[in-house]
Amino acid sequence: MKKIGLGVGIIILVLILLTYFSISSTDKEFTTCIVKTTEDLESFDFSKHDSVTISPSMLYKANPIKTIIQGEQYREAWSTPVNFPIVYLDTLFGGVEILEEGGGKQTHSLKLKSKEGYIYTLRSINKDPKPLIPEWAKTLGLENIIVDGISAQHPFSALAVARLADKANLIHTQPRAVFIPQQKSLGKYNENYGNRIYLLEHETEGGRNWIPYQGVEEIIDTDDLQELKVDLGSDLKIDRKTLIRARLFDIIIGDWDRHSKQWGWAVTKKERSYTAVPIAGDRDNAFFNIGGLIPTIISNRHLLPGLQSFEKDIDYLPGLVMPFDVYFLKNSSKKEFLTEAEKLQSMLTDRMIANSFKVWPEQLYKLDAKEIIGNIQSRKKNLPQIAEDFYEILTEKEYLNTPLKGSEDLGLPSPLIRCFDCL
Fold first, then answer.
1. HEC letters along 19-36
2. Residue range(s) defining the domain that contains residue 371
């Protein structure tokens, strides 16, 4: 028994040593992208060029031990040089003004407004996970485990997802990747936001209507939709069938992080009735790919049931059914789920799925597209069963008794806290 205990102790010690060796092999801090054509960003005159070739980040490069301990992820995609168009805000769409700084815990963003009244967002492709690092990780010197987790996100997932969404007849934010050099138009944001790569896309709330729907009254976020429900009551409904299709779409592309703040709504009016059509934003976690010893332990379904790697088969569907789904879809029928699953199957042919990834630069397509395409196609084949299981999980869940994320301070009437159709 002593020999067994000693052996286990040695194994644990070796794992600890390998972990610290692994995290010491890369920098711990958030770094800007690297420009391959110059080593001095400050002095380089980007105005003489219309594009630049850069790598999203060299932060996630790894030696063999780091790969074993923390996984392969999309490290090579992050370090692959890609060509980006250079954009200046004073000429973008005829000139845009910066409205405010935004973003979530990882993403730096700027909200922009064009002269025609359209609202856009610049969302950083490179992430800053420092706000997510817990104190215990800082104390133990394990910050890099959290920082390195960004390598599980594909830097260009949103571009392929947008093309797939077109095929599924789902509204998306029309993202495109750009390089923003330092410039006077950035004003006080020049130092923190200049010389970085971004997704330039439509905002999921506010501004002039940009979606291809008639009769759009306004584009709002989820908490504003709830407040509008208080005013309009039963005259306001969501486009439930489209939302079901959108959520099944999320499942087959492996986008596991779909809470209420990642959705906008286009409110349309016909006579006295209002319908809110869902607009999905923030596609950072589509095709999420985790591996390695530590991430596999952390993503265990008993610890983080929603944090799942994108494989041919879904690891744990209950972890992907969110409070958002209970709130908006619990009153749906099984027939609605199965109908939208079959519709999505017919819309996303295997050829359409494969062609959607041609939007990626050739070097990235060769790296990752084949495996991702195969996983999507595999999940699509099982979509009716996925839809039925999703519905059954929903029926077993209770209505909400706490507000959705982002609407905690609205003071909503209790029925509207339970579900959208409860008022």
1. HHHHHCCCCCCCCCCEEC
2. 37-422
